[in-house]
Amino acid sequence: MRRITPLIVAAFLAIAPATAVQASAGPCKPGSGPHLRGKDFTDGAPLPADLRCADLTKAKLDEVDLTQKDLTGAILRDASLKEADLSQVHVEYADLRGADLSDADLGQLRAKQADFRGAVLIDAEAGQAEFPHADLTEAVLTRIVLTQADLTDADLKDADLRGAELGQVKARTADFTRARLRDATFDQAELQYAVFKDADLEKAQFTQANLQGADLRGAGVKDATFVQADDLNLTGTRGSAEDVPDDAILPTDAGNPLTGVLAGSGQGPSTPVVLIVLSALGLGATLMIWGAAHRHRRRSSAEYAIARRAAEEDVTRFGEEIDALDFEMKISRLSGPSAEWQTALDAYEAAKRSLLIAQTPQELQGAAAAVRHGRQALEAARRSVSDVHRQG
Questions:
Q1: Which of 140, 220, 238, 363 could serve as a FRET partner for 73 with CA atoms 20 to 30 Å apart?
Q2: Are the beta carbons of 314 and 347 closer than 8 angstroms?
Q3: CA distances from 207 to 151, 210, 249 (A)
Q4: What backbone phi and psi angles, to 5 degrees, belong to 211?
Q5: Cα-atom radius of gyration of the chain, to the nearest Å?
Q6: What are phi and psi for residue 185, nearest 5 degrees?
Q7: Rounded to two decimals, what is the model's pTM?
Q8: pLDDT 10s digits, 349-384
């Protein structure tokens, strides 16, 4: 779920710190800035002061100091930024597909909705970097350090994160489908409703991670550790995990503990074996009613998890729709109709609050109602912006 609500431009400029104000001032159309395709800056050649929406396709920026630069909306496709310093750099909405950022310093990078598809970030340092809603599909992030980074709703399908450090990462609703995460660490990570379907989690560590609603179906968890992990559901996983909490939901094919006891040695069962079997059957009968109730609670919990994930995704999509219109207005130097725009923002906040307090599928309806109301207001704001475009 999104952590930062987009604000109207005037309010944002009034309260943001200087660096953020600079990053949002004078919105531009991606690629409309300086044309620097294929340029080589490794020999100390000066960079333009304004790099917003610059075209730096295939540019060479290895070891270049870009600290605190504003590259919002820039095109950096296939650019080489090996060992470059991008700490506190703004690359919101930027296109970094295929870029090489190996060994780069990405500390506190601002990469909201940036496109990193197929990018290479091997051994990069990205502590406290922000990648909410970013696309990192098939990116190579081997041994990257993402401690305390924000990967909320990021797309990491088929990404290579072997040996990555993701301690205390915020990755709510992030998608790690088919990602390679062998030896990765997620200690104290926030992974609520994240997706790990068919991912390789062999020897990964999830110490004290919050896995509420996380989908691990098809994931390989051989030798993965889950010390004190919260709300772990191993349904449909492959392999045998270690240090699994007592309250975790285990795969259904765990096997029958009596299998092999009755196999014997080809002779009739001995008296001790018969007594053991009878005792087990008696215990099973005693626990039958409890087991039925427990399964019912588990089914109810699973149904709620599915419903909540759907609600989270709907609220997230609504937030992205708000972001898209907000960005369009900034590019066009427009201010949206205040009433409809504020109504949409208020509805988004109401939906988030509803999700926060919801405990049952029925209570999730409040979030759905807020989203419906907000989308109506957002559509009205979008029509007004379109009318201004046509008049212009």
A1: 140
A2: no
A3: 18, 9, 17
A4: -115, 30
A5: 26
A6: -115, 130
A7: 0.66
A8: 888 888 877 888 878 888 888 889 889 988 888 887
